[in-house]
Each structure stands twice: as C-alpha cells, then as structure tokens.
Amino acid sequence: MSSEGGNEDCLGWAARDASGVLSPYKFTRRAVGNDDVYVKITHCGICYADVVSTRNTFGGTKYPLVPGVKLIYGSFVSHEIVGTVTKVGSNVQRFNVGDHVGVGTYVNSCRDCRNCHAGLEIQCGKGRVFTYDSVDSDGTITKGGYSTFIVVHHRYCYMIPKSYPLASAAPLLCAGITVYSPMIRHKMNQPGKSLGVIGLGGLGHMAVKFGKAFGLNVTVFSTSISKKDEALNLLGADNFVVSSDQEQMSALAESLDFMIDTASGNHPFDPYMFLLKTCGVLVLVGAPSEIKLSPGSLIGGMRSISGSAAGGTKDTQEMIDFCAEKEIYPNIEVIPIEYANEAFERIINKDVKYRFVIDMEDSLK
C-alpha cells in the first residue's frame, strides 16, 4: 500500500500495566495510504470493555494500551470514535476533507470472504482487525480513540450527517449498532411487535429508543426498582418489570416476540425464555461468563437463543442515518480525558446514565 507523506506522531492516553491507570502517551500512526482517511478525533465513547482491557482481566493485553475497541467473550463491546476528516488518500471517493465521520469496532478485514462481500465484515474470519490491541496488516499494534487522530481505510469509516451532534454520534458506533443490528436481522422494525429489553445501561437504553422509534411495545426488565422511573418516563418504555418479582414475570408469560439481553453479569435464562411467544427469539449482546437453561425452555415453544456482535458496515451506516432522520440521541455525559480514570470507576459502580463520551478535541489541544 503506497502512502502519501510520512508517519506522524500522535498524542493519546494509555494504560502501561494491569493497574489500568491511564496517562498521556505519545506514539506514531501510519502515513495516510491511497485508500485511507485521516480523522481528527473530536469525541470518543467509553464502555466497560475499556475497563477490563486496560486491566488485562481476560489476559493478552499488549501494553502500552490506548483503548478503543476490544473483543470480549467472542462479541464486541466497544467504545466509539468520531471526528472530522482532515486528509484523504488519492483513491478515496466517499469522503472529503471536512466531513464528519465515525470509526467503530474494527478497522480492517480481508474484504474477500463471503462475510465481507455480504457487508458483514464484523464476522470476517480471515483478516478482521480490531480498532485497538490488534495486529494490523502491516504488523503494527492498533491503538484506539483515546488520541488526537486515527488513520483508517475508508471502508471502515461512516458518514455522520453534519446536523447530528458528534458527541451524541459516538455511542452509536457501539451501543447503538450492537442492539440495532440484531433487531433488523430479526425483523423487529415492524410496528406492533413486542420487545423485551433486559438491562438498562448503555446498550439497553438504546434498545428502548430504537424499539419506540420502530413502533414496538417495549418492556424493560431490571433487577432494580430504581430504574422504573427512567425507563418509563425518561426513555418512554411501555412497561417495567422487576425480574425477581415472580408475579410480574408470570403475568407476561408467552407475550413477547423478541428479547434483547444486554446484561453482562451472570443471571438465569429460563425465566426469560418462558416470556417469549411460540418461535420467539432471545438475542444475547451482553457477556455473562456462562449460559444455563433447560432444554425445555427452547423445545416447548420452539424458541431460540442467539448471539450478536456489533454490525457490518452496511448496517452501521444505515443505523446512523436512521438516528439522524428520527432524531434519536443517546443519553451521554461528556467528560475531559483527565477524568477517564474516575469514569472507569464509576462504570464499575454502574454510576452513569448512560454513556461517558470523552471530549478529545478540547482535552488534547
């Protein structure tokens, strides 16, 4: 791949060891190739994957680590990069200098396998490269969005309408697409259907927003009654159920077409499966350490359980355009990069509604 210009120094924040503490870090990004886009990063979202990656919770972290996107339990739980195009390679036709763009969970793939041809690059098994802590095609270790800029092949960039706030666009690249993609795949964009959302965090609150935009009847399930007011009055859900309340759960038996499970902690699955109608589907997008359920939960009602990981390039662009058209905005708390370590602790304590977004442009001037 020929390059235009030379490598360029980049300023970011990185973890140096398993303490996970972030601090300023200088490194080099590759030169802009003929097919590349140079993105000046304005905002970057934070998710729980950044916390566990910086602390090497699952092993394999390569330090220094500039967070951005990470593969956990076989699914993508990522934060998100948005910014402004500053340079484009000579072969790039889709983007121009000044465009607002986003970069998601991966920055490369083989572009030749069945999944890549189908716009499912997220499932590429030959050469998928994650946005950070992954080996790129040139042998370098990718580094994420806690930094001033990023250089990405244009295929893995997404156009963000200029009417859509960049800070709000950041969580769409993870929380948004992770719930949008399985909803579209299972035809849960048809008005009148019934949706159950397990968990009300970064992913769950976006599932509620999409459900209402699609005209669905939305029920939120949580272990905490404290989430009821925000579920019903802030996010507009139609029903709220405390999942430990057997009476409330029983009242919804065989009433839901589809459930999306965003909970990452271990929890029972049988009680939820029995809430699905015949041939209903539960899609898992969280990352519990194990799944335990009775075969009867599946066999009796011809129900199924599936998994989903972010989305391909086609779905991601479609989702961004849909959010802009319907004015769907994640609920965010914008912070400077200097607050990131404290934000990590608050994420562990579930003290955020519902997504931290780092103002990289003002933080790293």
UniProtKB/TrEMBL annotation:
Q: Where is the Alcohol dehydrogenase-like N-terminal domain?
A: 33-162
Q: Does the keyword Zinc apply?
A: yes
Swiss-Prot/TrEMBL keywords? Metal-binding, Oxidoreductase, Zinc
The Swiss-Prot or TrEMBL record lists the needed cofactor(s) as: Zn(2+)
What gene is it encoded by?
A: CAD1_9
At the top of the EC hierarchy, this enzyme's class is oxidoreductase
Q: State the InterPro entries in the record.
A: ADH-like_C, ADH-like_N, CAD-like, D-isomer_DH_CS1, GroES-like_sf, NAD(P)-bd_dom_sf
Q: Which domain of life is it from?
A: Eukaryota
EC number(s) of the enzyme? 1.1.1.195
Identify the species of origin: Stylosanthes scabra
GO molecular function terms listed in the Swiss-Prot or TrEMBL record: cinnamyl-alcohol dehydrogenase activity
* Annotated family: Belongs to the zinc-containing alcohol dehydrogenase family.
Protein name as it appears in the record: Cinnamoyl-Coa reductase
The Alcohol dehydrogenase-like C-terminal domain sits at: 202-324
